[in-house]
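idk why but the lab printer keeps eating my pages so im just putting this in chat instead. protein + FE2/S2 (inorganic) cluster:
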Amino acid sequence: MPKITMNINGRDMSAEVENRTLLATMLREKLHLKGTHVGCDTSQCGACVVHVNGKAVKSCTIFASELDGATVDTIEGQANTDGSLNVIQQAFQDHHGLQCGFCTPGMVMSAAALLKDNPKPSEAEVREYLEGNICRCTGYQGIVNAIMAASGQDVPSVAAE
Ligand code: FES
Ligand code: FES
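predcted complex ->
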C-alpha cells in the first residue's frame, strides 16, 4: 500500500492507504481525526467537508492516494492557538447554529471557506453556499445567523425566517 504524507493542520502526517481509500476514511480511521464526520454515502450531506490546498471539498469524494504532499485543514485545526473557539465556532455557539452537532464540522469548514472568498456575504449568498451541507436539526436559520455574525454583519431578524 502506498504511504501518503499530507500536511494536516500544520503537521506532516502519514499513513499507508489503499488506492481506493477516501480522504475521509484516512482522516478518521488511519489518523484518528474523527471530527470529520461521514453522514451519507451519496456525497450529499457535507458533514465531511475539509479544506484541501485551501479549498473546501467533501472528503468522501476524493482518494487519499491522490493527495500526497497536499495541505489539509480539518475541524481539529480550527480553534485558536490558545484552544479557544475561533470566531466562526464561537458564533455557532452564540447563535444556536447547532443542536446535535453532527453537521457542525462540515458547516464550520464550509463557512470558513465562504468567508475566506467572500468576507461579507449576503444572507442569500450564505444560504446558496451551504446548499451542499445538510442539517437535520436546526432549520438552518441559526447557522445562517452564526455565519452572518462571524462576518461582522447584522444577524437577520427572526421575521426574515
Ligand atoms: Fe461526504 Fe456526506 S459524508 S457528503
Ligand atoms: Fe444536528 Fe445539524 S445540528 S444535523
